[in-house]
Write a structure and sequence with these properties.
Serine Threonine Protein Phosphatase 5, Tetratricopeptide repeat; 11 helices; 2 domains
Amino acid sequence: MSRRTIAIAAALSLIALGSPLITARATPLFVQYFNKGVERMQSGNYQGAITYYTKALEINPQGAAVPYNYRGDAKFNLKDYQGAIADYTKAIKSNPQYADAYSNRAIAKAYLKDYQGAIADFNKALEINPQFDYAYNNRGIAKRKLKDYQGAIADYTKAIEINPQYADAYKNRGMSRELANDLEGACDDWRKAVDLGKERPAKWVKKQC
């Protein structure tokens, strides 16, 4: 299960004082520390990002769903999956409607092979945001890991309905169709993934189709 296939949903972005991303109680120092965390995250300095997100949270631990979610991302990138789950859980506690945090926690659970737990979190993310194509794709991967190939195919199909240019969803649906003994369907999906820019399925087409 590669990081490219299951991707953290929330894009990192700098914030300004008064941004709806953060609580109204945020101070200029909180924003400064948060943005320093984002800058270090973007440069690949995940430990530095954690340091600054932690400083921001020490200033304002309440209503700080976004910093907890971002710090979880940094921990995830350091392969501290339990630490990431703890932060995503805090983000959810701060904002129970935070679909990205549920999706990210699901991804971390999947990396720990807790696929049922991952599916439960993806379910919640999709309850909050029914157009969350990444969550459908990633829930499909978790279902495939549990050998629920038809369930996985249904999820990839939903992701494609939402985003017809979603190359990974075509690639993944092809993989599940192959496992479900539908090689013709798999080949169709892999060809579409190649058309959308994926290189790896081209080898599968050449070998099996």
